[in-house]
Amino acid sequence: MKRLLFAALIGTAALVSFSSCTKEYITQEAINPGRSFIYTVKPNEWSSDNNKRIIHKINLPELTKYYIDQGNVSVHMSLNKEASYKILPASFAFNDGRETNPVSFHIDYKVGEVSIIGEDPTNEFTINPPTQDIIVKIIISETDFVE
Questions:
Q1: Which of 26, 42, 58, 86 has the greatest number of beta carbons closer than 10 A?
Q2: What is the SS3 string spanning the chain?
Q3: 23 within some domain
Q4: Containing structural domain, residue 54
Q5: What CATH number does the domain containing 41 carry?
Q6: d(Cα 91, Cα 108) in Å, to the nearest integer?
Q7: Which keywords label this protein (predicted)?
Q8: Which pLDDT belongs to residue 58?
């Protein structure tokens, strides 16, 4: 009988000591490392630099020195009302009756500004501005810098 009482005493002591532990839950906040901006570029918003190129500049105050030095900047274009996108650099053939050769687009960016540049990579013909609206998506995102 003493053994049963002793076993019950040990079991109760163990139960009390283990149940007094508290679990800590660490909740990480969700981090959204990127930001997306969508613009509609109308046909009359393109300019030419007289070097057979068309250019559209987008003011983007959120594009800070951090993104130039360390982050990521990507630009995408859609000709079909956002049904699909091509990431730049990319070539597009506009079916507007004026342009038969594809236009090669690339980007240049600096603090506060993204420039979309369209040109003929062979430099054989003059580029006309598109006659349709183009949807542009710019994504800026944080990255981990590795030295």
A1: 58
A2: CHHHHHHHHHHHHHHHHHHCCCCCCCCCCCCCCEEEEEEEECHHHCEECCCCEEEEEEECCCCCHHHHHCCEEEEEEECCCCCCCEECCEEECCCCCCCCCCEEEEEEEECCEEEEEEECCCCCCCCCCCCCCEEEEEEEECCCCCC
A3: no
A4: 34-141
A5: 2.40.30
A6: 16
A7: Signal
A8: 96
The two structure tokens encoding residue 106: 């690339």
121 DSSP assignment: T
Mind listing the pLDDT tens digit of every residue in the chain (147 residues)? Answer: 556 555 555 655 555 555 555 556 666 655 667 899 999 999 999 998 876 889 999 999 999 999 999 899 999 999 888 898 999 988 887 765 555 668 899 999 999 999 999 998 777 777 888 888 999 999 999 887 777
Hey, what's the torsion of the CAs at 22, 24, 25, 29, to 10 degrees? 150
